[in-house]
Specification:
Layout (H helix, E strand, L loop, with lengths): L1 H8 L3 E3 L9 H16 L4 E3 L4 H10 L15 E2 L4
Parallel strand pairs: 1-2, 1-3
């Protein structure tokens, strides 16, 4: 529901995964689907520098995350705050 509200708001999104220590497959798939839907709504998803754990999870999952350059956090809505 949170992801849908963020998409409907229409603002660019900043996702901080720099300190992520663990992520399960379901959560990773949710982030992937969110990014796919954001692209359909022309919403840019900006990612922080990925933690090693997040990079490993993405590599092992086979999902392809399209990472855009990291902007200033102040310029975007953070999923943590929504």
């Amino acid at each position: 529901m949170q992801c849908l509200k963020i998409l409907l708001a229409g603002n660019n999104v900043f996702i901080d995964v720099s300190r992520l220590q663990r992520i399960d497959t379901a959560a990773l798939q949710l982030l992937y689907q969110f990014q796919q839907q954001a692209e359909k709504y022309d919403i840019q998803v900006h990612w922080s520098v990925m933690s090693d754990s997040f990079q490993d999870a993405v590599s092992l999952s086979g999902l392809s995350f399209k990472m855009t350059d990291q902007p200033s956090v102040a310029d975007n809505d953070s999923m943590e705050n929504n």
